[in-house]
Amino acid sequence: MRLRKDGFWQNLSLSTPIIEALKDRAVPVLSAIVVVPSRQLVNQALQVAEELCAGTKIKVGTALGNVAFATEQKQLVKMRPQYDPRRAQELQEKASRQYQTGFMERGGLYDDLKAMPLDHVPQYDSGVDILICTPGRLVEHIEHTTGFLLNSVRWLVIDEADQLLNQNFQGWATVLMDALHGETPVMNAQERIRKRERDANSIWSMALPARRQLTKVVLSATMEKDLTKLGTPKLKRPKLVVVQDETAEPRALDHE
């Protein structure tokens, strides 16, 4: 798989479908994650992405560690109260049980719950539609940013995949795959049911519409046919395109 150094964002055949799908969205939802190996490449990709998204409602954000973590958290996740007495009671009871056992979670969802009005729960909304990030910072947000949810992500782009998958900073690929395919503390009941039925390969899940289609794009200028590292991104029915000419379309797509 070969591509120019500025990679995905100058390949209009890959970026246009994302922009077309998101351009009229009124409220941001984290729908695409682009992982690159360095801060410099994040900034390069951001510049091109903002040019491509000009005139649309798409919000592009970054996570690369050049600002305070708390500041980045506020940019990526917005919190608001939502009236849900039943869920509020469930969370309060769980927090009470944790307090009694001495294993009370610190920070995150339960601290946010304390700030809610009576019978309300924290609702977390994304501040961005597209996130361009380094792998280490992405792991930090997955593990420590309450409400940073990946259950609506429809596109995952891994650029310079040979470098990223070889070094695998902080086990980032495994952490990311678990977050993309796993349950989250604030999933609603319908999402939980669908997730569990898909995992169990239940016949009933066949009657339910898929929660989303997840497309994974893995780009590399040097990996070529040495694909031993491609097990980590959990590709299903992958398509490999090896391009020698820069004018052709470099892409490897995985649809779920």
A few lines on this structure:
With 256 residues, the protein is α/β, with parallel strands linked by helices.
Structure description:
With about 260 residues, the chain is an alpha/beta fold. The protein contains 9 helices and 8 strands. The protein has a 6-stranded mixed beta sheet with strand order 2-5-1-6-7-8, with helices on both faces. The radius of gyration is 19 Å and the shape is globular. The two termini are about 20 Å apart. Residues about 1-5 and about 185-210 have low confidence and may be disordered.
Q: Main beta sheet: strand number and arrangement?
A: 6 strands, mixed
Order of helices and strands: HEHEHEHHEEHEHHHEE
| Class of secondary structure makeup | alpha/beta
In angstroms, what separates the terminal alpha carbons?
21 Å
What's the structural blueprint in terms of helices and strands?
Elements: H1 12-22, E1 32-35, H2 39-53, E2 60-63, H3 69-76, E3 77-83, H4 85-101, H5 109-114, E4 120-126, E5 130-133, H6 135-144, E6 155-158, H7 161-167, H8 172-181, H9 189-199, E7 215-218, E8 253-255
Name a few traits of the molecule:
256 residues, alpha/beta, 6-stranded mixed β-sheet, two-stranded antiparallel ribbon, 9 helices, globular, disordered N terminus
